[in-house]
């Protein structure tokens, strides 16, 4: 390096480091979760990414959400993956030729010009759109950002609350573990046992080209994922028939938080948000009624096909802490559970594990069976602040910043040691770091 002529190395601040990850992963219209392992656009990743990106470029943050919503289906579903046509088919499995959205999804209104998956992911988008708007209201108004995204977000929620009310309790069900986003959580073990796996030789796992096998779901898990997705596709993505249907606390809590955000958006656009707040209230009551388990001190998943709660403590059962109108005693109990022996916060862990430290299926390295993730950490930090737990929120925030930077923005970390697992330079870890820095 020629000291006289070359500029000094870029500032080594966490802010600059995180912004660089998002820059590297930007494709021009959206951000990939990671260059190697996940080379397309993912739905809930994009929502978290936009929440961080708004601090670096409100325009890119708006574009991120617009690109995703451009791939929305006629029935309102927002697909979990929007495929980048310039990426080779064998770079990620399942690829567009597996989902066949433009043919198998025709009746459900899949777009013609872009290939997508046929399943969904948690509805963090309205919350993200509202936060993105508030980062630069002038730009947002000038571009008509909310005017354009509001009807799409409303249709998305309508899809979830009508076509996906498979349990009849007014809540949304997921029909595939990939939809809830915590793919191999032990919460799915029992409902998945009813699903006959597709033969391992019938597909090729591109994920193992990039991720260590012991950090990823097993071949048996994949066989079941493939079977469920194949059945859904072969039924032309009509809802209601599948072997797997689960109501999940995090998925529904995010829907409720997004419904509150839609109320804010409606108000900004000159309507009243009253009906949406009222709906969010009804959903909160339904969530408590259906999934609150006083004996475990947290929310549990509801198995719609078998009927009844699934007796496994996953981090998704703590996420409803996010909800502003959660009854005080429930919020206090949730905090107690997060800081108790099952999740160990402030004792043995600094960032909540994805699954019960004392659970039989706990594994500190295998994906959603124990490792700590930054998106759930971010949601819990928000929940703690919402319910007045300032000191705990601050400690969690500091832990997340330390671990994100030390792990080079890992996808997830060992909950005890903070050691990086999965891929590094992962977009939502970088984006949520940026958000916590502001
Ligand atoms: C399947 C992209 C996604 C996340 C999920 C995470 C993982 C995909 C995979 O990666 O899932 O959708 O191939 O394992 O579990 O939450 O959205 O980052």
TrEMBL record:
Q: Name one GO molecular function term.
A: Glc3Man9GlcNAc2 oligosaccharide glucosidase activity
Question: What's the protein here called?
Answer: Mannosylglycerate hydrolase MGH1-like glycoside hydrolase domain-containing protein
Entries under InterPro entries matching the protein: 6-hairpin_glycosidase_sf, 6hp_glycosidase-like_sf, Glycoside_hydrolase_63, MGH1-like_GH
Specify whether Iron is a keyword of the entry. Answer: no
Which species expresses this protein natively?
A: Streptomyces chartreusis
* SUPFAM superfamilies named among the record's database cross-references: Six-hairpin glycosidases
Q: Does the keyword Transcription regulation apply?
A: no
In which domain of life is the source organism classified?
Bacteria
